[in-house]
Amino acid sequence: MIPVPVKFLILAVLVFSVGYVHLRGRVRHKLPRQLTDHSSFLAPLNTLLYLTSSVPNKPYLSPDDFPEMKRFQDNWETIRDEAQALFQAGEIKRSNTYNDAGFNSFFKSGWKRFYLKWYGGDSHPSASKLCPKTTALLQEVGSVKAAMFTVLPPGARLVRHRDPYAGSLRYHLGLSTPNDPACFISVDGEHYAWKDGEAVVFDETYIHHAENTTDQDRLIFFCDMERPLKYGWATALNRWFSRTVMAAASSPNDAGDRTGGVNRAFKYLYRLRLQGKALKKRSRNLYYSLKWGTLGGLFGMFLLS
């Protein structure tokens, strides 16, 4: 049994962390949404990472502060050629089997991806086979934990969201883009329009969204870089989380690639999600009563056990 003072300490840490995450940016979710957002469940870890970060906590960072990433920009045309060949062959695509928990909600917009590597592992076997030059470049940059090619088609919009994990920073390199302000990402209310051969670095745990209202596809090289931290113990914790928890969300391009435990379970968990959506459509009052009642019950069990 957990002593009562320890329970209240845990509660205080959780409340402080969720509040810190919620108030961190100019753009915020409404409080009820924030309380059940996945970023709240990782708030204690993320707050620790923010407080020990050796780079500024702001929406956008200069790519010049990450000189190892210049290797990709110097070779952007080589990367582009492999990405375009994949796209034309239909290899950059959505998942149709509920095995990509991290990006499943994007697929309905038409967003597509081809994984190059994911946390805790080397390049996907399919990527090594189909885009050997890009995967060879990735092997030279140890700070990149995950990478993929992504496409945002004409008319697509990715809704406002936070990514759940603050142990990384997001890098985008324009490969074949509209080069138009109408195709952009907005991070904490600040817009950036992708351009061919140009890189941008941002903190994906700020609320962000993307739109492409042009008549052209947007194809980019997308990486998660390890967040630089001030202390060795914080870096060790971040790397442990990366190679264990984050690695469990690995999603395949084809049958020859590894599927992490989270995504093996996702197809079953998503059935519950679909039932929840159906209930919400029938009766919003009942849906929210059950949702908040369940959360309140779990919270009460923790305090009273």
From TrEMBL:
Keyword Secreted recorded: no
Residues in coiled coil: none
Location of the Aspartyl/asparaginy/proline hydroxylase domain: 74-228
Protein name from the UniProt record: Beta-hydroxylase
Entry similarity comment: Belongs to the aspartyl/asparaginyl beta-hydroxylase family.
Keywords from the UniProt entry: Dioxygenase, Membrane, Oxidoreductase, Transmembrane, Transmembrane helix
Record-linked InterPro entries: Asp/Arg/Pro-Hydrxlase, Asp/Asn_beta-hydroxylase, IPNS-like_sf, Lipid_A_LpxO-like
GO molecular function terms noted in the UniProt entry: dioxygenase activity
SUPFAM superfamilies for this protein: Clavaminate synthase-like
Residues spanning the membrane: 6-23, 286-304
UniProt keyword annotation of Transcription regulation present: no
Pfam families found in the cross-reference section: Asp_Arg_Hydrox
